[in-house]
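Moderator note: this is an archived Q&A kept for reference. The question asked for a predicted structure of one protein chain; the sequence and the answer are reproduced below.
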Amino acid sequence: MDVSMHMKLLLCHGLERHMQTHSPNSQKFRCPQCPQTFARKTALEIHVRNHEKNRPYVCLECSCGYSHRTLLTKHIQMKHPQYSAQVVLQRIDTNELPSLADAC
């Protein structure tokens, strides 16, 4: 299979998976604290973190916390564009917590 065909299959699978989230029958994971429902267990877990104020992804520069890694990445891109989000996330993954100034 050539690369372009492989990419098309991945995109189709991604679209199919996304469309399933809009199907009323797919909303089988219900939040125990509100009426929200989700098609995927991982989406529910992320949502529940917001209720619990569990914010394990913390910006090393300003200490803002986020419930999901992608939210921290967006924060870094918007508020600290001078730093590479990749470097920051690598430091978080390895539990290194020095100042971002050390990463540049």
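Archived answer notes: The mean pLDDT is 74.
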